[in-house]
User: What shape does this take?
Amino acid sequence: MGTTQLESVPEPKYWHLKTVLTEALDSEFSVGEILPNERDLAARFGVARATLRQALEQLELEGRLHRRRGVGTTVAPPRMGVAVGTDQHAWPGGPEDAWRPVDCALAVPPAAVAEALRTGRDESVHIVRRSRVSRGQPVAAELLYIPASSVPDLSAIDAPSATARARAVLRELQRLELERQENTVELGSAGAEDARELDRLPGAPVLVVTTRFIAEGRTAALSVATYRADTCRLTFGDFGGVEIHHGPQRRAS
Assistant: This one.
């Protein structure tokens, strides 16, 4: 990396620095390589460390860098495509489901979830916790909220493990006839629990996908799934595999 004069650039310095760093990542560094420390990078480019951090944070948000405590900043691999929905709607837990059940508990959900499910303020619902792994690394964590009215024939769960309890609830849920599902996506930041499950630092960028499963004219289940924004490219529908990359050595496909 050579020194670049940034003082006369009309756009924010960190944004121009991001462009310069992007070119260097494409031409000088390989996937997994550790970048020089912040002090050395700031000296090479003649910028304050605060400006450098802004540029690095933006590159992390775009999935070009991984920053991990105790390791440093490394060049990230290309984002992986993760399908979050198809044209054929299906209940969670079906044969084609990529999620892995982890736990299940009967508890009162957050107020916003209770409102969406139209349950009482103090009414407990089944909360199934699931995880999703791709290429050997965690990419998403989910909380699936299922009111008792959606699984009315479910007797007291007497399963040997939390995973078995989760599967029992999901099996019973599939007895309902699914009418449709609705997805929304928001950009957020990882809280302490999500960060731990996704192997990220607290505050790291995440994509939050909320899915409402509609049956009998009501929300029969609600999924809140948190995806790593630095590694995932979400796709919707059976033809959601369009890839558009931005960078000096990439082209649209």
About this structure: The two ends are 29 Å apart (CA to CA).
